Amino acid sequence: xxxxxxxxxxxxxxxxxxxxxxxxxxxxxxxxxxxxxxxxxxxxxxxxxxxxxxxxxxxxxxxxxxxxxxxxxxxxxxxxxxxxxxxxxxxxxxxxxxxxxxxxxxxxxxxxx
Amino acid sequence: xxxxxxxxxxxxxxxxxxxxxxxxxxxxxxxxxxxxxxxxxxxxxxxxxxxxxxxxxxxxxxxxxxxxxxxxxxxxxxxxxxxxxxxxxxxxxxxxxxxxxxxxxxxxxxxx
Lengths: 113, 112
Hints:
Radius of gyration of chain B: 13 Å
Number of strands of chain A: 11
Number of helices of chain A: 0
Low-confidence stretches of chain A: none
Mean pLDDT of chain A: 94
Structural class of chain A: mainly beta
Order of helices and strands of chain B: EEEEEEEEEEEE
Radius of gyration of chain A: 13 Å
Number of strands of chain B: 12
Helix content of chain A: under 10%
Oligomer: heterodimer
Distance between the termini of chain A: 36 Å
Shape of chain A: globular
């Protein structure tokens, strides 16, 4: 089954404790991205990647890191989480071909206390 | 950069009534347009996408959207709302399959 898999689904952590949210897709997609969803703000892009070893900042990259060492994986790293990073996070992928939609994971709800 | 505007963060309709969710985009070139739906505690699912083959696009669950270039709009409609349509709806625009831009979403409530 074609899917984007994020882990964990729920995560509660404390300020400053490094964490990683994993994202993996099995569709051989070149494009992968991370979004955060906050009430009233919709989805805002954090980082995206056009292909292996190619990453770019989205609209809200501060406090986040990503890496794309393999085509299928695109982890999101919070080196020193803060309470304002409490949010719902989504990973998504796309084939980059004409009119190709984004395929989303089920989300990770992060709480930073 | 593109921008996407969804008028109305909350829309309520009675069961059986017409659903109309508005989306306007800013683009000087023909964009790639999508509507996504998000049910509670789930990720976003593709409802429909615009192709240049037709201005009226049919999606899943009876939804459709009409592309109007002169109005830079891509409004989502459904003739008769069902209780199961209650969800958050997002309009999105992409640039040549690269960057995707989302509206702030419209929460649809269906009143029995």
